[in-house]
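Instructor's aside before we start: the two examples that follow are unrelated to each other. I chose them only because their records fit on one page, so don't look for a connection. First example below.
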Amino acid sequence: MKTNEQITYIKNGSLDTLFKELYKNEPMTEIQSRFTKLITTFTKLFGEQDVQLFSAPGRTELGGNHTDHNHGKVLAASIQHDAIAVVSPNSSTLVEIYSEGYDKIFTINVSSLEPIADEKETTTALIRGVAHGILQKSGMIGGFQAVIHSRVLGGSGLSSSAAFEVLIGTIFNHLYCNGSLSAVAIAKIGQNAENNYFGKPCGLMDQTACAYGQMISIDFENVENPVIDPIYISFQDYGYSLLVIDTGGNHADLTEDYASIPREMKMVASFFSKESCRDINKEDIIQNINQIREQCGDRAVLRTLHFFNENNRVDKMLHACQKGSFNDYLKYVNESGRSSFQYLQNIYATQNPHEQKVSLALALTDDYLNGQGAFRIQGGGFAGTIQAYVPVSQKSLYTAFMEQIFGVGCITELYIRPMGAIEITKNQKEKL
């Protein structure tokens, strides 16, 4: 469909049913305007062409903080904030991507897909890494032109990089692989790009949640075939809003802080000649604790104990959701938050202990809720955001209170999106 035809198609309401599923309570005029403006930008940059539309959501981690990289268990959900793209394939080997908010077009030639050292920690590295993964998996690759707009803000703890990786993987999948690659395959390709091209040692949770969609539990014991179980729940039905609070912390130079967590957990596993914490058990740690402390350090032991307790907690959270025991679910959320603070220790960066905005947000939320709801770190930690389950009746007052400290607009309400990364088409709408 040509760009002008796509704009007419959107404006006449042909995608409204799908948009309502993706974006919940947002005004339809704003949703339509977002897409039509992006199509207009595409036309200005690349001309009038046949184009396709794509969307990949951000994600929120609900349980299992920093366990996936050691083959653990998590609860996660895709959210209404997403990255969208207007795309047209071309007959060359060039991928050209303009991402709103940047002042240049990212260009790579997919005829050369080996990692480039100078590209580490760049958008280009992620694109190249995803393209390499698609080629390795399917044997098919090609060029395209795209314009992207993301509402998954970087540093928000909602996985902006994973959403981008999954979006690019989904575009390649539909343009050149007939949509044959599964959500998990796309997720693995994104993780590999982030690990080996971008240079960040993330686990597989973020990409899986973005690619698969809805609220899910994921068991990564067999990382080649993770067990995924959908969970059907609405926090609003229980009288709670899930909010993320952006504390404004600086995420610069935190890669080493993130990397230290899997590294230290795997040091403990290595003490037993194993690869990951999933290959050992808590009793082994207790029985050999002094030798492990001497070899790996106390923090590594604490982080490994967090891993075991958090794994068990994910099972409890899942069962609480399945039984409709929402108060129990909230109790486990609070336990997860305390474990991250006390044992995992990913609430502030030790390189700058004077800045503890996340710690402050947690303390203020604890005091404000006074036993109601729940709160915990959001995502990787060390800076950025927390999440809070706040009674709907208290949402406005809590928001006003927190905005006094962290600024107007610091709070966003999250809704669970029922689907992961998709091509946005009339056929997709008819599947609902």
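Example two begins here.
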Amino acid sequence: MRSYQETLDYLYSQLPMFQRTGAAAYKNTLGNTLVLDKIYDHPHRSFKTIHIAGTNGKGSVSHMFASVLQEAGYKVGLYTSPHLIDFRERIRVNGDVIGEQAVIDFVDTFDTHNKKACLEPSFFEITVAMAFWYFRLMEVDVAVIEVGLGGRLDSTNIITPELSLITNISLDHTALLGNTIPQIAAEKAGIIKPNVPVVISESNDEYNEVFVEKAKRENAPIYFADQEYTAAYSTMLPAGMQNFNFHKSGKLYYEGLKTDLLGSYQRYNIGGVLKATELLAKMGWRITLESIYNGLRRIKENTGLRGRWEVVGANPLVVCDTGHNEAGIKQLVEQIRQTAWKELYMVIGMVSDKDIDHVLALLPTEAHYVFTQASIPRALDAHELAAKAGRVGLKGLVIPDVKQAVVKSLEMAQPNDLVFIGGSTFIVADYFS
């Protein structure tokens, strides 16, 4: 029998992994997933599900949802990707990661079944199958399932959820999902199921009609959360909390709604969750005002989420965030502008298979940059990144090792400065590791 480390080595080395290798690991069919689902006797049918898609914010929304449902008294499975430090972060039940032995057991059973099936699944296909298998084993009441990539052909898209939620759409993974906003929206809209309500967190004239038409074809009730709930960003509170007031139909509806996920952009994600929980409550779910307030206040505590405008140091202020595409970087730059600092230091790295020129053009030109690269094959060479950045007026040092890059930034920064670490999920992962 394999050890846990040997099992991980098998998952990482033998199965194509998109996060590490890119498009070569992407499967444009649900074929393997459907076979795996049949092999394990359709485990996802034994629990209810909530399905979350979108370009930015779907991870935060998934964790918000899981936290609120836990506070409401449900036993909650949570499937997200990618992980930051430990593979097991992808699969949780009431915040607890899947056990090492369960990972070993699943892979061993897959090997046994596959002697007959002869599948060549991707890393993501196996991981989704493992999550559904584990959630049935743990007898969860409901599982919050985050789409990995796209929606229509994502391995998670074999479920028929109680409710679907789509956060927003922007240009990302254009080689696989399409190079226009409507094309990408059409892929995300693939999670809209017959007669299943869908909430869109952020409406936009570029893609609203795509979702409306898909919902109409599926007879799925559709709701645009930001057309009902609007947030006044109130105050940043001590102890890593922020406070929002949400209005509905012009009236104060949620006063003093606190959350431990920082970043003013979380107002869009929270609005989607508020609308979605309102719908579930009307469907008979036991979601109370108290569970919403407590769930949003205890997201990190209940789910273990990290890497969303996470403050990891003080004097100087050190913040990391996994935002990496054009829309995500716009939100981060807005947050940086709202934060007090004297000098700004940016430890930045990106992946090589994205059009990063538009992203670099959004970054603050007055910052002191340290260009770096994550320890994965997809990482863009730090020197190449620095050259590209220089063409849009961003100047700085090149230190390929992430931790050394952070150390150098901290040596240069003074107590009233801000050090930001990001540009890619994998830069944040290397910092935490």
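The longest strand covers residues 229-237.
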